[in-house]
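note to self — DONT lose this again. spent like an hour looking for the file last time. sequence + predicted structure for the chain T wanted, 251 res
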Amino acid sequence: MNGSNFLNELFSSLPTWKTMIWLSALLIGIYIALRVLANFLKQTQYLRVIRPLLNRILKKILILYEPIALILLFGTFFLINPLYHGGILLVPLIVGFSQVRNYLTGKLVQLDDNITTGTIIQVNEVQGIISREGIWGIHVQTREGIHFISYSQLLASGYTLITNKEIGKFSILNVTPPENSGNRNEIITLMDLLTTTPYVDWNYKPDLSHTDRHSRSIRVRVFLRENSHIEALSRLMEEWGYDCIVMDQNA
């Protein structure tokens, strides 16, 4: 087989635009299914015993799925026309190499269960609570404000996870759900909302219960990561539409 025939046979077997469209639809469908499953696990009242484990496994799958799907899509795009599309992909790859490296570094960092929203972290002189995990880095809430730390900086500078439990305390709040809450299970709804806050230390699971059989008010006993977070949590609950009264601390 001469060189020209080999190239013709090689390029004739390359994927087409139709292949890429089908692959895109398949990858998007799988991603949507994983997201729906993740939301279901967060809201379901079943599988309580193994739900935390399933959530952790699914979180790791979603973290890895995104870059793998992108690599498959860009690889297919490249193979459709290697010479032309290779040049198209090479320019943004060179220009945005640091961002691509930071993005992939972030996926590795996010696989660590300790680097998550609500964790107290110190990077150089910045110490605070991780309030959000972004695509390019983490947002750390401190007393001075919110600091952004890229994933590359996080690994280059190193970090310390603060686990001293004495910086936080138990608090008891009396919470009344909004009138328009309908027939929802208020305790499950409020527990789900609490999982979105950076103030709660989930090493101590919050205890939620109705104050009595006929009352809509909910007694919330929760361990906060810092003493000062009680005011921020109260304001956040009021933004959710709840009436919130701080009953006691160090409970």
